[in-house]
Amino acid sequence: MSLTFNSIDYLVLVLYAIALFYIGFRFSKKEKSQQDIFLGGRSLKWWQIGFSIFGANAGPMMLIGFASIGFSHGIVASNFELLAWVFLMLLAMIFLPYYLKAKISTIPQFLLIRFGKRSYNFLIVYSLMSILVVWLGSALYAGGLLISGIFGCQLFTAIVIIAVVATSFTAIGGLKAVVRTGVFQSVIIIISSVILTFLGFQKIGSLDALVSQTPESYWKLFLPASNPEYSWIGIVLGYPVVAIYYWCADQTIVQKVLAAKDLKEGQYGALFIGALKIIMPIIFILPGIMCFVLFRNTAPDNAYITMIKQLMPHGLLGLSIAALIASLVDTVSSSLNSFCTVFTLDVVQQFKVLNSNQQRRMGKWVTVFVALVGIGIAMLFSYSGKGFFDLTQGLVSILAPPLAVVFLWGVIWRGVNGIAAEVVLYGGGLICLVLGVCHVLNYPYQGYWPHFLMLSFYIFVALSLVIVAVSLLTKSKDNLEIPTLFEQHAGETRGQSKSVWLSWAGLAIVMIMIYIYFN
């Protein structure tokens, strides 16, 4: 993975670092009077929301992981991007109107309003652990491996540098600094990836030459049910379970639309990231397929770095590494800000009511503290090897069903009560934890469990039956004056812009055409 840089590459990296700090710190000074470091004063515009979500979503593991899947399986991984628009529409048109009207600052506060204190406390703990381990710890570890491999420094040194860079402007500038730097870094990622894809086409010669040198299955979005890793059944049934939670109820993602200037800006922000999903297979997965054609002896996990090393001239090589660092820093900074938001507004406020100035100070110190904890978790990952990282990713997919069930049924049925939600969250969460560990560790033996996407679907169906049965058998103690999301949404549908719905319809048509063509 070692790369050779010249003075132009180092100049590009230095300019990137200067621009990053300038944008982050200059904005922090400009907004010195802004007291809200958690939601940016609820003033974000649609393009800021879209680019910020893109930057947080397009972490280093996406750049490297998607190229790896492209190298070994083709475009099948595009499903995880192309199908996301359905759930982004669900977020924008169903969940977001209620979230903004309720003026919640964190996702756990939704469960407090809908189901009560015990469900609220469950999601606080889950959100903090998810942000800390899945987002922050894994991003620092993955990024540390990349930076240490590229520049030849120690893993711990690389992790600390990444944490310091991300923490500096996040603690001072809050969400607005994260969003502003996220927009800048998203542009860097897109430009670099487009150039890499162009150079790959230039090297191969044409699209026909690319297609002719790859298996036919590489160009199918849906693979046969017999495929052990990415069958169409697993994707169609299992992916929605994870996507409902990830796109509609994950603090790191949803926090960006909660900070929207108004409902319409938030909806267009979700629409914008949905539209960006169209280009992501082209700039992230296609380079992996190109690497299969050009450098077939490469290990799949090294496909992205190999393409950069072999095709990018000096100067652009520095830009590509800047893009990797950008994806990493944006994921880490988003994680830090999301953690401090939940901790300060949901945990601390239960014990001591803070005014806005105290919240701001608390947020800064929490950001610094959790960065130190994240460094420790990243180093623990290094002692466990890649297997532990894979374990965390598998557990995320299997632990999503309880939350997906509670949020989805909370939307579609008024009869779901707090007792049923608690049974699913606490009981289902414990069962999912046990099943997840057994599944990833191949206990009792390899091949015993179905693919994790199918297992997610089975758990989702079982817990849906549980939440319905318990709701019917128990008497609700909830505040029935609080409407469900559909009831809230029904009263506002007439006031929503038709242009938003027409835009979603246009995006749906484009996505359907893509699926028809590639199947």
From TrEMBL:
Single GO term (MF): D-glucose:sodium symporter activity
Matches recorded under PROSITE patterns: NA_SOLUT_SYMP_3
Keyword Transmembrane: yes
Main location: membrane
Transmembrane segments: 6-25, 46-70, 82-100, 120-141, 147-171, 183-201, 230-248, 269-295, 315-345, 365-383, 395-416, 423-445, 451-473, 500-518
UniProt keyword list: Membrane, Transmembrane, Transmembrane helix
Lineage, top ranks: Bacteria, Pseudomonadati, Bacteroidota, Sphingobacteriia, Sphingobacteriales
Protein name: SSS family solute:Na+ symporter
Family matches, as Pfam families: SSF
Bilayer topology annotation: Multi-pass membrane protein
Gene3D superfamilies linked to this entry: Sodium/glucose cotransporter
Family designation: Belongs to the sodium:solute symporter (SSF) (TC 2.A.21) family.
Species in which this protein is naturally found: Sphingobacterium detergens
Subcellular location per the Swiss-Prot or TrEMBL entry: Membrane
Transmembrane among keywords: yes
GO cellular component, one term: plasma membrane
